[in-house]
Design brief:
Length: about 170
């Protein structure tokens, strides 16, 4: 089972529509859709969506019920909030307990992240050795309210929850 919407989107392995686990506020959904339909390139789209999200970060309680905000000691969680029918974007809420982390990955598309609660520890990697190896290029500790947008190339990263309360 894939843990992230990214895994599913990249692999195209899902045979049926993904299950929606939370609620995406209509205002946020409309704003993201408007930016995506702007027809900008991926980097510009990421920057525009990030700028919009900084003004419209939702309350965690508005998007996930308490049982999903608690996290799972077995692994970090990714909850789909919305998937645009044409596949142009999706919105997900991820929950990390302290110490839980993703694998090192990229998104092969634009992506915007916003920290709603807790802190997110993010490692960014660069290709080196003739693109055969990775080296740590940056470390970021993103507090609640931090929003960033990115697009390939240069989006290889790993995310970890580091502090209580849990990251979301
Ligand atoms: Fe990621």
């Amino acid at each position: 089972m894939s843990l992230t919407s990214t895994d599913n989107a990249v692999a195209g392995r899902r045979a049926s529509p993904p299950a929606v686990a939370g609620t995406c506020p209509d205002s946020l959904l409309r704003a993201v859709r408007a930016e995506v339909r702007g027809g900008l390139d991926w980097q510009q789209t990421a920057e525009c969506v990030a700028r919009m999200l900084r003004r419209n970060l939702p309350d965690p309680a508005a998007i996930l019920p308490p049982r999903l905000r608690r996290g799972d000691p077995a692994c970090y969680q990714s909850h789909l909030l919305y998937a645009e029918p044409d596949g142009s974007f999706s919105i997900a809420a991820m929950v990390w307990l302290p110490g839980q982390e993703t694998v090192i990955h990229d998104h092969v598309s634009w992506c915007v992240t916003g920290v709603l609660q807790g802190r997110e520890y993010e490692e960014i990697f660069a290709l080196t050795g003739g693109d055969r190896a990775l080296e740590l290029a940056a470390l970021n500790v993103n507090p609640a309210g931090a929003v960033c947008g990115f697009a390939p190339p240069g989006d290889i990263h790993r995310v970890r929850g580091v502090r209580r309360p849990r990251g979301l």
